Amino acid sequence: MMRRYIEVPLQLLDIEGEGFHIMVQGMIHGKEARFLIDTGASRSVFDPKTISTFIDDLVFEKKEGMTAGVGSTNLESATFKIDAFSIGDLEINDYEAVALDLEIIHEMYGKLHLPHIDGIIGGDLLRRYRAVINYRCKKMRLSPLS
Hints:
CATH superfamily: Acid Proteases
Largest sheet: 8 strands, mixed
């Protein structure tokens, strides 16, 4: 039996010759979006201000405790629902997402003249869809749930 998977083109963003970040294209509620792939992030996260441009009438539920993350600081976070978004051609519905202030990343990307990111895809989705990242081919393979 042949396994079905989706290949998503990757864009490698050069970070001043010091390394690379991985970006993929997708959609949030039918609007084009750019996602950073972060294999070290435990959850996928979206900036509250940015996600508000994609989803009308957002309802955030404050998350108890603090979230360790961006810049090794503790940040307050909240959850919200995304009815439909995609990573490449992989459709994801009814996803409970985490809202986290990504201003530090937006500022850094601006200074480096890199594209604005609309969200960070983390380990929760990468594991769920069995992501395989191929730097040589600049593609990521995702396996839809059966």
